[in-house]
Amino acid sequence: MITQNPLTLLTLVREDRFEKLNEILERFKVGLNHGLNERFNQLGTLHYARWFVLQESSFRDKTAFAVPVRLVFSSNFDGDIETHVTGLVTVFPEYFDELYECCEGYPDPEERNTESRKNYLLKWEVKTTAFYVGAPGRSLKQILQEQELKNFIWQYINKNKWEGMSALKIKNAVKDEVVKHPEFEWSKRPEPTGKTNWPGMILMGLIMLILLPVIIIWLLILHFFYERKDKNCYDKRSQLNDDLVHRLEAYEDLINQNQFTQVLVMKPGKVRLITVNALMLFARTLIKNLFVKGKLMGIPTIHFARWVLIDNNKHMMFFSNFDGSWNQYLCDFIDKSGWGLTGIFSNTVNFPKTRFLFTGGAYDEEHFLAWSRGTQILTQVWYSAYHDLSIKNIVNNTFIRNELHKNLSEKQAQLFLKRF
């Protein structure tokens, strides 16, 4: 199985090039609708990418120190990081030169080559704290191939008459038609789909059971010595910066997918840092062993999500790529995993009032939605390799591929046809 990976780069921006950098990013955003998308597509391994400028004014809440201006690049891709970055600077050398000339220490023109560009970018890499993949193991190539197969079968079914034929006969006719086309030879090889790692989950459960007394004491300490003293968010939607909200909304719901970029200030102290790191370890374990079938805590709309602690753990960035609207996305989180959101984000400044780490917080929907919008920032450039595909589509297409060449019963054939 192909491994999908995240890359996050935080690069210092030259003070004298700040305005120019924003102009370039604006041009790139427009360019995504006029040919730049095709350049991204040439990589063949890039699922999503984004650029935005991070500065002190990006944080709604007061930071503990002066925040330098940085250009942030984030991508989700197949394979290893070095190959990915080499591909970026090979396919887009002029774009990366133009952007990163605005940043500190970029190689001079006479020193620029694939290796020097790659080494420069990798120097600014920051570690991902937790990373979720909605369709683990599915490369971009596989996703696009399986969608092509699904479309081919759908067209074949629609242009023929099947009255009086059983589902099994229709399914076998579909298989015979696909076999005639050598471009679909790859479909004969079944692809593994995510399976819950029950031994891993049982082991985690045993560890949690052993640690339960410590966890209970820790929750009591958090509540009585920290949460009760916290300053909490009681903002409403009407109290937010209207200009920022309107700018954010202007770039939402333009296609079937949306993106979310959030920057947060961490609450100070070792207790909070230990808590959030423990929760990130818990999240990584669940993602690896349980959330492997296209759903994160029961939510079937998230393609990729990422948490990144930066600035010596003083700040947090959160990125996601998801299906549907912003409001639906966050309300799904509240309904199905409000405790998880509360556990992680209650360790950031001005989160809605939380009790015992996992209650309150996100379940205070009015203030949580206002907090989420208030800490969201504008993503200046965003690329998606498959605008019209949802996570449900991607998972379903793999099942179509795997069932196509299997010997199915009549009932199974009926289920197969329902996938279209």
3D architecture notes:
It is a single chain. This protein is α+β, with helices and mostly antiparallel strands. Among the domains are: 140-190 and 390-418, no CATH class; 198-384, no CATH class. It is built from 14 helices and 10 strands. It has helices spanning 18-31, 36-42, 81-91, 93-100, 114-122, 140-158, 167-179, 198-225, 242-250, 270-289, 326-345, 365-375, 391-404, 410-418, and strands spanning 4-12, 46-54, 70-78, 130-133, 257-265, 302-310, 315-323, 354-355, 359-360, 381-384. Strands 1-3-2-10 form a 4-stranded antiparallel β-sheet. It has a 4-stranded antiparallel β-sheet with strand order 4-6-7-5. A two-stranded antiparallel ribbon has the order 8-9. A hairpin with a 4-residue loop joins strand 6 (302-310) and strand 7. Helix 7 (167-179) crosses helix 14. The radius of gyration is 24 Å and the shape is globular. 35% of the residues are buried. The model has no long low-confidence stretch (mean pLDDT 95).
Fill in the keyword field for this structure.
10 strands; alpha+beta; 420 residues; 4-stranded antiparallel β-sheet; 46% helix; globular
The share of residues in extended strands comes to 15-25%
Mean pLDDT: 95
Q: How far is the first residue's CA from the last residue's CA?
A: 25 Å
The poorly predicted ranges are none
Given the helix and strand composition, which structural class is it? alpha+beta
Describe the largest sheet.
4 strands, antiparallel
In total, how many beta strands?
A: 10
Bin the helical content.
Answer: 40-55%
Q: Secondary-structure element sequence?
A: EHHEEHHHEHHHHEHEEHEEHEHH
The Rg value, from CA coordinates, equals: 24 Å
- Shape, please? globular
Report strand order across the widest sheet: 1-3-2-10
